[in-house]
Amino acid sequence: MSTASSQGEQPESPRRPERAERVEGQDRHPGIDPTVRMFEKDWMEKLSHVYPWVPHAIYVPVVVWMIWRGADAGLGGWAVAGLFVVGGVVWSAVEWVLHQFVFHEIADDDVEMAVKRKVAQLDPDQPIVSNLDGWREKFFFVAHGVHHHFPADPKRLVMPPSVSVPLAVAFYFLFDALLGATVAPPFFAGFLTGYLFYDSFHYAIHFIRPGGRVEALMYRLGKGHMRHHFSNPDQDYGVSTPIWDLLLGTYDQEEKAQFWPERALWRQPEKWKPDEDLEEALEELEVRSREPTVSR
Length: 296
Known about the structure:
Largest sheet: none
Number of domains: 2
Number of helices: 13
Structural class: mainly alpha
Helix content: 55-70%
Low-confidence stretches: 1-33, 257-278, 292-296
Distance between the termini: 32 Å
Oligomer: single chain
Radius of gyration: 22 Å
Order of helices and strands: HHHHHHHHHHHHH
């Protein structure tokens, strides 16, 4: 008979992992804790959950209307198309600036580490925002930190309309003031389309696994964002395109990020393997697809 039994003690039951064990290093598992409660008030919590189709339902009609306004104002087809493309390119630059200087630089390393430590110490059902200190900690977590700490949550990936709609209105009036009432609509249509592409591609590289050559191509295009999540958050700010990281020196040249969900979403990979071309990426994808999911 064991010592515990002889003393009348009950054997210890298996212990549920604490959040600190699961959050540290983004070592997460989809079956344990894919999401978190952000706010105390239920209505605020509901607004923080956004399905990925919501931005398209809001902005696709706006894009169509803006293109029609440009054509109705007398702009030719090539002019409308050119302004549309330029607007999309401008979005990619704004995306990079927002990601680096608003979502990350506004919170220095001390703030990010403080948020991470406090999130790790809370119980899963405790609202996080009310337990953070100061506007910088709260802003960082609401704007971007929740996605970095909980990348397995598909409804915390796109920007809530309560934030994106006021921003879209502000950008439209800015473009109207700078470009004029005739030129601004098709330019803004391209800008919004760039945003929708960003949201769609961001969601896809986190959660969609189509297989085959499509997934191999997604792997090549999305590995920079995986590096940003699981290797170095101070590099690879572009999601839609790496062009601004390449031009501005924030592109991580090391091949560190693998795309596979069990290695990229839930844990840091133990081994890093570069892919030299699409065929090698496809071969690697086919091999991985036959392996069982790894979890800890």
